[in-house]
Task: structure prediction
Amino acid sequence: MEALNNVANLLKEFVRWFQFLAPFGCAVTFGIGGFQFFLGGKDGAQKAKPYLLGGACGLIIILMSNSFSSFLSSKITF
Result:
């Protein structure tokens, strides 16, 4: 039982670190997308779209992961 608690605590710590780093990664991704949008010429918007969507989706997933893991830990019992 202690081993499962250790694994759960380790996963929660990973989630906390990812939540700490996610806004910085999102800012970098939005910055790259912005440069592509403005400096990419006539196809700049098409080049920037994957960066902007990926950054937004990644940030949402990482920020929701803590609530999702809390929900799962409250529903799964041994």
